[in-house]
Amino acid sequence: MQLRVYNTLTRQKEDFVPIKPNQVGVYTCGPTVYKYATIGNMRAYIFMDELRRVLEYDGFKVKQVMNITDVGHLVSDADDGEDKMEKSAHEMGKTPLEIADFYTKQFMRDLDALNIKRPTVCPKATDNIAEMIDIVQALLDKGFAYETEDGIYFSVEKFPSYGKLSGVNLDEQRHGARVEVNDFKRHPIDFALWKKAQPNHLQQWDSPWGKGFPGWHIECTAMSKKYLGEVFDIHTGGVDHIPIHHENEIAQAECWLGHKAVNYWMHNEFMLIDGGKMSKSLGNAYTLDDVTARGFRPVELRYFCLNVQYRQKINFTWDGLASAKTAYDKLCLQLWAHKNSPAGTDQQTLDDYRNKFEAAINDDLNVPLALGVLWSLVKLPKSKDVYALALQMDKVFALDLDKVSAPKQADVPDEVRALADTRLAARKAKNWAESDRLRNLIADMGYAVRDTATGYELTKK
Ligand code: AMP
Ligand code: ZN
């Protein structure tokens, strides 16, 4: 089935056509490893993972590159403020390398816990400084960049289509300037390719312009080119990257290479918390550890996220997560019953569900619709065939559906279990009226009883 994706650059859904048949190169802006990732960040990486899984489901071989930003991302996304890594290192009394190592490990642990496949390559910015210096030099040589007292800047006026991704032209940006003005720049939107370092700066490298460190944007251009080539298929990130980071990536890459570098730009919308922005000062920048500390499993957060298509905002609340957990548990219980039933669903029915599922995921990753197909599938009469199809779908969902287990009988109160035992005896005596009466009594107490080959199974309704 033809995959269609929404391309931020053209503002429309397009047929996805890879550069090389059956292969796809995807670059994702990775985390800045100076603190724990928030669950908002993890939404971006669940989206990255869903994209990869859909591509793989469709038979593509995916090379997925996600960088680790361990230098150069300043406190504002533009060129001002301290480097986030330096700031964290100072605050915690550690070196930037120690900070980066620690938070990279934590981040990878979170990826694993959320069933996010590890990218094929996760290059660190600090391992690619020479490649960045080469691009900055080339941009200077070609006249797209200029040197000032404090760094090398890209001159946006040399790139007439600057703003094409966000749809904002230079004049509007000049006035609206989200980007802070800096005395050294010729134009407020010009951005740093390289920053000259003060002697006390912790991370600095030799360069043709003295000691310094790279700008954040050039990192992604250097690493995507190195691992995916001059033109690659898909670039992803959160919507906050559209107006500055990705606009800058496009400008510097196209001026350096003389042609476009990315065919499809895909962006995930934000996660809100209680309807508002997530922020440290509000104390709501929750991490995966906060989620597990409240008794939720990471897979339940994944299920919560999959219920909203990646281009829509998702509103996180603890109640919402609790409802997602309830729904997820119910889904697993139903699947457990299918797993332990004989085969018996006709092929046509299974094909219809598979087709609906594939249509949903290939329509710009409409995963919530695909989950809806799974939900109607599990409502079919109990059959192993249903379970087998659900497992195929789970290659995309990654909701551990292969691990569904017997309902926890221990949670059932003794009096309910006693009624179920009496009912089992009634059934053995073929006293169907008494068996039905007891089933209703059990239902009134909030439990469902299901007969199995070895006896019965009780589940909370
Ligand atoms: P950062 O480490 O700040 O560069 O962010 C890592 C990724 O998370 C980027 O793709 C951001 O766009 C994305 N991101 C940050 N906050 C949120 C949020 N609240 N919801 C969804 N994505 C986010
Ligand atoms: Zn990036």
Describe the structure.
- The structure is a single chain.
- The protein is of the alpha/beta class.
- It has 3 domains: 18-268, HUPs (Rossmann fold, 3-Layer(aba) Sandwich), CATH 3.40.50; 273-403, Isoleucyl-tRNA Synthetase, Domain 1 (Orthogonal Bundle), CATH 1.10.730; 414-460.
- 44% of the residues lie in helices and 15% in strands.
- The chain contains 15 helices and 14 strands.
- A 4-stranded parallel beta sheet has the order 4-3-9-10, with helices on both faces. The protein has a 4-stranded antiparallel beta sheet with strand order 5-6-7-8. A two-stranded antiparallel sheet has the order 1-2.
- Helix 4 (129-141) packs across helix 6.
- The longest helix has 22 residues, at 318-339.
- The model has no long low-confidence stretch (mean pLDDT 93).
- Adenosine monophosphate binds next to helix 1 and strand 9.
Quick summary:
The protein has 461 residues and is an alpha/beta fold.
